[in-house]
Design a protein that fits this description.
Elements: H1 15-21, H2 26-29, E1 33-36, H3 43-49, E2 54-57, H4 65-85, H5 98-121, E3 125-126, E4 140-146, H6 158-171, E5 172-178, H7 191-200, E6 203-209, E7 220-226
Parallel strand pairs: 1-2, 1-4, 2-3, 4-5
Antiparallel strand pairs: 5-7, 6-7
Length: about 230
């Protein structure tokens, strides 16, 4: 893969955040789950500690824990300063300040780093990236994709988004994507055309409001599954 680590800004989220972002129920957690573009989230280790079935994939997993840690150190202050500069674009209810946001994210990333080497050996962290995944069709019950698709609509085309989502639908019975806003906070222009195309291809889609909002108006998730 051609990914350069110096182009990546690692930023990890916790199991609690995943539960709220993706409206995960206790029954959902029992499913076979793929966390696609998972980055340095603690979701995998927290799920594993509770006995659940989880695989995370991301191109960043080609690097070592030490290399990822160094990149986190190199970019952490820049990210927090950027959030401070645009603090009006965020909702500060559950997270009271940019500084505390940084602490929460760092705690999740430290959990990830402590688990990454052994988790990779166990096959829980796999180096892979959309729009082509090294998994069998319907290998997972549920695929989750956080802060990648639609978030980076200015970097990836509508065609890429459609191909990536169809690939997630190939490997999982159900797909959930959050959020549906661009990094800038604007709605992704790809959302409605992609929903229409998916429904034309026989997929059922649903926009669901979830109990998680950090970006203003960023509290919707897209659920996709094939008609039975």
């Amino acid at each position: 893969m051609g990914l350069q680590l110096n182009t990546v800004i690692p930023w990890g989220r916790s199991l609690g955040e995943y539960i709220r972002m993706f409206d995960l129920t206790p029954d959902d957690l029992k499913l076979s789950i793929l966390d696609c573009a998972g980055g340095p989230a603690s979701f995998n280790i927290e799920m594993t500690q509770q006995g659940y079935s989880i695989i995370s994939c991301d191109p960043i997993y080609q690097f070592s824990a030490n290399e990822i840690f160094q990149r986190i150190q190199d970019t952490y202050t820049t990210v927090v300063d950027g959030v401070k500069a645009s603090s009006q674009d965020y909702v500060w209810d559950n997270i009271p300040s940019p500084e505390q946001l940084g602490e929460i994210r760092m705690a999740a990333m430290e959990q990830f780093l402590s688990d990454f080497t052994i988790g990779k050996q166990q096959g829980r962290y796999l180096t892979a990236e959309l729009p082509q995944l090294p998994f069998n069709s319907h290998q997972f019950d549920l695929a989750l994709c956080s802060h990648f698709l639609f978030t980076f609509s200015d970097h990836f085309s509508e065609a890429f988004h459609l191909q990536a989502i169809l690939e997630l639908c190939r490997v999982a019975q159900q797909v959930r994507i959050f959020p549906l806003l661009k990094v800038s906070g604007e709605p992704s222009p790809f959302l409605q055309p992609i929903i229409q195309e998916l429904e034309t291809r026989g997929y059922r889609t649903k926009l669901k409001t979830v109990n998680y909002q950090f970006q203003k108006n960023g509290n919707q998730m897209l659920k996709i599954h094939k008609y039975p």
